[in-house]
Amino acid sequence: MAFMSYEHASSSFAWKASSFENPADYLVELTGGDRGELLAAVEALERSGRLSPVHALAKTDFRFDGLRKKLEHGYAEVRSGKGFLVLRGLPLDGVSLEQFTACAWGVGTHFGRALSQNAQGDLVTSVVDATAEDATPRMYRSNLELRPHSDITAMISLACWHKSASGGASIIVSGVTVHDEIRARAPHLLEALYRGYHYHRLGEEGRATLLPLPARWDSSGPARARRAAR
């Protein structure tokens, strides 16, 4: 099992909560000028009747100036830095949900191409408690705790339109740190992790993946893992 001695090239992703002295270490704060750029783009789209559907909008519809530099920095942090970013200060005052969604989408176009994460093909969806309408909803459509897990896309963004009355706090975990802790504490478990396992999207797809999905850790590039809480 020589592969278990590999050193991955993802040390910047290996962090713990104690690695950060204060929120400024991972926070990008939007200024009034940044919000102005976002709203100007959204208002121009609204005037031209192109605000909806939001998934038809491209990066070229959101040509930013100063904000572009912040988003480029944010992309670099997510892609090859810490692996995450907190962007604070999206427009809220006097903004409709449709406009807010367009703002969040516009930011996302500077990070990559949108992919769906559900069987319905939704590119933007709401985190709500839908248990009254659906007896077996996806976890993000319930009032249950969603434990640490990974998603099928390379990046995922969450935007807060309306703060919940209670709960709703988000946590993130470094998959690289989890891997390194397994290697340090129970290296025999890495064999199963590297071999991979079949994945089933319960409630949305009729069968599991035909091939196992492994975690990949090698010295030539960043680590990639597929994981679900159990």
Number of separate strands: 2
The profile of the biggest β sheet is:
2 strands, parallel
The total count of helices amounts to 5
Q: What sequence of helices (H) and strands (E) makes up the elements?
A: EHHEHHH
What is the terminal-to-terminal distance? Answer: 25 Å
As a whole number of angstroms, the C-alpha radius of gyration is: 20 Å
Side by side, the strands of the main sheet go 1-2
Tell me, what's the shape?
globular
Low-confidence stretches: 1-6
Averaging pLDDT over every residue, what do you get?
84
What amount of the residues lies in strands? under 5%
Structural class by sheet pairing and helices: mainly alpha
Helix content: 25-40%
